[in-house]
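Re: export button greyed out
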Amino acid sequence: MRVVLAEDLFLLRDGLVRLLEAHDFEIAAAVETGPELSRALAGLEPDVAVVDVRLPPTHTDEGLQCALEARRARPGLPVLVLSQHVEQLYARELLADGTGGVGYLLKDRVFDAEQFVDAVRRVAAGGTVMDPQVIQQLLSRRAAADRPLERLTPRELEVLELMAQGRTNAAIAGRLVVTERAIAKHTANIFAKLSLEVSDDDNRRVLAVLAYLDHGR
Amino acid sequence: MDIDTKSSGVGTSTGQGRAPARGVALAAVRGLALVPICLIGSVLCFCLTLVSVALVPIGIGLVTTPWVLTGVRAFADRRRLLAVEWGGVRIPRAYRPLPKDANPWARTFGMLRDPATWRDFRWLPVDMTAGTVTALLAFALPLYPLEGFAIAAGLWRVLPDGYWYGFVRVTDQVSALYAAGLGAVVLLAALWLTPRLLHAHFRLTGAVLGSGQGELAERVRVLTETRRDAVDTSAAELRRIERDLHDGAQARLVAMGMDLGTIETLLEKNPEKARELLAQARRSSAEALTELRELVRGIHPPVLAERGLGDAVRALALRMPVETEVAVDLPGRAEAPVEAAAYFAVSEVLTNAVKHSGADRIWIDVHHAEGALRIAVTDDGKGGAAVAAGSGLAGVERRLGTFDGVMAVGSPAGGPTMVTMEIPCALS
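Workaround output, generated via the alternate export path:
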């Protein structure tokens, strides 16, 4: 799997390169500025891009803008965005086109190599991965004004949170140490209570949940 | 008889019934009140100042002068107050601040070096002459005609023969009627003149007592205050940041280093324990990062650095537990300090609204017009918000003051509450 990596801090870039190579990824390019990233994304046709939000020369959200632009040029291009802080605003922009293949994580998640690599793979496969912090914010905000959420059992809330982060039923089952069948039942209940359309496609499901949490539909 | 009709015609010709009459009466009474104040106060202040300053060379003046000059200033302040209350004339006050514990020598010469002291001193003789006369005229003009009418009504009989009323020599009933006629003319004049005389008195006070530099001095005073505020807040901020770093991230990193040291020694002997400590070290580093993130957000929110004020406010709104709508119209970006001040002001106002108003909707409008950033935060809560001392809103006001910004709170009981802020700035 070919990866384009954009990160301006040498130490972190180097660490990410070694981490990904250790997990059998091929690093197509490891760049440190916005323009370099744009060229790499356009020219190298990677399977997945791992991008830091803030890049030189402007040190604004150049990385995010380059990623969004590349996805406009090539819809569905898998992009995993890393940042020192997560903002719902950015999450919305990444999710806006609704095609999946998007990830948005805190840089700290790199500490847990297994989880991080798993996230890269899921994004590359067209899934959606959201940082637990974003989900927490969405949940707490919705919970303040939302009747349907109140009707969920604590266990269902747990499942909803993991589902919103973009995990599959199998992963959630592993996480909560229950059978996959139990999780399937939970998800069916959740979708019924939130009156969402049930779908077999994992990613469509995640996007529906995220849209619900973000806008209340 | 026709005089009567004439005088009654005066009342109606002004077309406002008794209102001007009451205004004139009020002005007259105020004029009367001012006369003794002007005369006694000014003469006293003037003489005391002269004597006190004259006694400076022999030392007594050093003790008395600060007292006397403080008294003069109090007197002048009193008159400034009257000018605003009675005449609507604002006279700026621009005394240099004096150190509280300065010795008499420094106080005396500090006061004597202040141009405002000499303005006060110049004003006293003007006040005891022209000031007194204008005040006295304001009082006497509406009163004088009454004597004329009294003379016509029969007072002329008991007056000494050849009594002068104005320029009329009263000898008999006919000339007494002339006196009444003159009184009526004076009364007519008084109706128009009296309020203007009183106003002229205050204008005179303002002209001599206020200085052309008053505005400038006022501005300097405001700048001094806001600068002190800015320095204070930034010093407090730095202290807070230092403490947070010291007790938070720094302490955690130290603990992590210790854990790593222990792991090194345990690797061979007790790998199980080492693994445990490794997990702990990783937790510590994650916690340190979380703390640093919070700290950074408090110093300068990353979204603000990356996107500017509009999106930073949008991101802020997304974090609110209350439905918040944001409308932004900014063609460019303001300077970073202004952006930060505006952001934290909005943040504080929002926090306030969420905490106290019980609103279920908030609207934020940010735009730039006429060289100023204008922000309005409206909520449909229960109202009753006030900029009380020590409240969050007062802090916002101070913070904006550093940038010559202003804040207005409209919050009737029952709501809605609207907080508007304006910060002069250019967009790039």
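The first helix of chain A runs from residue 10 to 22. The button fix ships in the next patch.
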